Amino acid sequence: MASRFAEEGLPVALIARSTATVQAVAGTLGPHGVPVLPLTADSASETELRAALDAAIDELGVPQAVVYNAAIIQADVPGELSVQRHQEAWAVNVVGAITAAAHTAPAMARRGGGSFLVTGGMPEPDPRYTSLSLGKAGLRALAGLLGAQYGPAGVHIATVTVAGPVAPGTAFDPDDIAEHYWQLHIQPPARWQHEIVHR
Q: What's the whole-number average pLDDT of the chain?
C-alpha cells in the first residue's frame, strides 16, 4: 500500500511497532523519490499512536489518506481466550482505528477531503477465529459510524475486506490488494464505495 501511494507522488509516513519492520519497508520506497517518514508506535497505545501521528503531521502535513492495517491474527474459539486477551485483541483490531481516526479525520474534514481506509477481513464470522471475527465486525461498524460523521465533510471512509491470507503470487497478492486502496482514495464522492471485498 505504501508503495502504491508513493508511486503517485504522495509522501508516506509508516508506523509499525518495531524499528526493524518500519525501516525495512521504508527502504523499499526509495525508488519512488518521495519523502518517507518511518515511525514506531504500538497501535494499542493511545499515547504512542497519537505521538506518531503528530510527528507525521508535523513533518508531512495533514494526510491525504490514512490506512489502518493493524490486527492481531490468532486462532481462538469462543470461550478460549481470557477477558484480558480479548481486550488486547480488541485494542489493536478496533480501538487503534478509533484513535487514528479521531486524531486525523477532523483535520481532513476541516480541509474538505481525504480518505480513511481500514483493512477488514472475515466477511463471514468464523468460530475458529473468534477474536478476529469480532474485531473485523467492529471495524465494519466503525467505518459506518465514521462515514456518517465525516463523510458529509468530504472524508471518504471505507474498508478493504481481505477474505484470505495475503501472499505474493497468489489470488491475494499484496499489489492487487493495494490497488483497491488507491482506487477508493481517488473515487469522486458521487461514486464512493464503502467496502470492497477482495476474494
A: 97
